[in-house]
Amino acid sequence: MDAPSKPIDRIVIVGGGTAGWMAAAALAHTFNGSGKTVTLVESAVIGIIGVGEATIPEILKFNARLGIDEADFLRETKATFKLGIEFDGWRREGERYFHPFGAFGLDMEGIAFHHFWLKARAEGGDEPLETYSMAWQAARRGRFAHPQGGPQSPLSSLGYAYHFDAGLYAAFLRRFAEGQGVVRHEGKVVEVRRGEDGDLSGLTLDDGRTIEGDFFIDCTGFIGLLIERTLEAGYEDWSRWLPCDSAVAVPCERAGPLSPYTRATAREAGWQWRIPLQHRVGNGYVYASDHISHDAAEAALMARLEGPALAEPRRLRFKTGRRRECWKRNCVAVGLSSGFLEPLESTSIHLIQSAITKLINLFPAKRDDDGLRATFNALMEEEFTTVRDFLILHYKVTERAGTTFWDEVRTMTVPDRLVEKIALFQATGRIVRRDHDIFAESSWLAVAVGQGVKPTGRHPVSDVLGRDENRGRLAAIRDSIWRTADALPSHEEALTAAMGVRRG
User: Fold this and answer.
1) Which of 57, 89, 133, 190 is 20 to 30 Å apart from 158, CA to CA?
2) Is 82 a catalytic residue?
């Protein structure tokens, strides 16, 4: 007769930072009143990465699920609004395009707007796709407003996210989590103990204390103390498609207005980020160390800052890829311990959020539930893979030339599923999203078109409109978007109002 399955009453999170405290806050909030306990172990001696400061719109759902007030969040984390990402030099040097949060134009005749834009281009029109993006027209003017109005209102098509200080966000969530009953233990883990069945059973800290648990969340970063060093879950290396393996990051003083978007600028051996916060600008250079030395990359970043540096630069090393099993035995990896994909599309914090949400939805009543574990791992594999393909797209369809880095990524062999996606878009103008794809059709469209992919076909329904009627409709949509954008408050004014702060 089989031994009875063990219940899960004690949840132990190892590691703090953004991943640890997001997990603690969400689990404690979800299981409040259930009798389950949530304990978090972290050491002040072990530093956190803490450079992930840009997000995608899904973060609004996470905050809303916890009942976090936006005004409090904006004040406590020094956050700003984000309407998308400007890509500078990714197609060719000196050219820019924008990946907006939100739709392009207005869908017509039951199909996506861009097919009518493609029709207009085929018939001699020359308006860029960004002309019809509410998010970009607001962003380029330095303006912001929350989404509002009915389907015909340009503002209803807006999506937005945040830039924030990751360290302040972790501290904000810690206060929230401790208010929900989470118990924090300061200490360094020196031993991970396992039971006779092979499951994790407890931790020994450097001062001799022991922490026992039934279920463990690994938020220990790249080292994967539980999931890899102890349980040997394995790692799938994706650096053949995403060759950047290093980054250097530094904050600086801001010069100029507070822009409501992230900027990613193509550089000689990678790319540079710019993330505007209320109190500073976050900067970083993500690069391939085979193509530029660490010292040269740091010097290049420091020479390009818009204002005085506010700290010493920090260097990071990583290997892009994912954990083969994000959930193994009674342990789930969340954050960097589950894998790493460069922050080109601000997905790091989302992948933390996604893992937590999936875990809560699939949380087992007993420890040995193989079906839930397999489902979680399959979902995380699909999500990591879909994000991977979206990032590869940025490198593969570039027209940049002249450096070995860009020549290599432009000509590399990419996964078959991405080859098929690009080919379908080139031939038909169609973008078919996979299940669990966090990026909307408009996101794939923005990057593909922005970097020069030109479809030779389009949906035949677009021909139900004659040339003049189609152009007239597009002009009306454009004019409505531009009039709306001109009337919006500045980003700084909107931010001040959202925080409930009275201006001097």
Assistant:
1) 89
2) yes
